[in-house]
Amino acid sequence: MAFACLAAAGLVACGEPRQDADEPSGRFQVSAKSSFPGKQTLAKRSTLTIRVRNEEARRTIPNVAVTVDGFNTRIKLKGVADPTRPVFVINGRPASIGTFPESKEREPKGGTTAYVNTWALGPLRPGRVKTFKWTVTAVRAGPYKLTYTVAAGLNGKAKAVGLQGGKVRGRFIGDISDKAPQARIAGDGKTVIDGTR
Q1: Structure confidence at residue 5 (pLDDT)
Q2: Which of 119, 139, 127 is nearest to 29 (CA)?
Q3: What pLDDT is attached to residue 104?
Q4: In this predicted structure, what is the pLDDT of residue 181?
């Protein structure tokens, strides 16, 4: 019976309202500015930042979201159970879950969703900006392509459009060098000093 409830509701729990039940339909104008280094090095941290601004005069965006593709790649190799391989890993940060030490990913705080590679930061009022930020480390040498798409909601009813009316998206194309990063440990035994600076 539990399985039937999940299947019938599109993976919505029995008795729970659909996630998109209150999502308004419409097109919401937004703009986005983003940054990510084109030249990367294996094992070196970098930051992907995407700032989304609500360009509407009066309307609040229901749930501003960003989908990022390119953190992983698919390999062509027969016999593997999972052909997905990371290009960038999202770094961890210390956290506590209950009384247990844990590690949480350095991704947009509070933005985790059930959708693959998608993060949402809630309503965005007119003229306001929300910043999506990921701290990542390159783990696979070679060329990379990272793309992102902005949405006004998670379920397709509320759509984000640019000032010219099209989808709001961007991409970064670069290269990940296999050269070892120039770094050393400071005298305190903890601090990592980047030798490239």
Answers
A1: 46
A2: 127
A3: 57
A4: 65
CA distance 36 to 25: 32
Report d(CA 14, CA 7) in Å as an integer. 10
25-45: pLDDT as tens digits = 889 999 999 999 999 999 888
Beta carbons of 32 and 50 less than 8 angstroms apart: yes
Closest listed residue to residue 147, CA positions, set 177, 120, 173, 180: 173
pTM for the full predicted model: 0.76
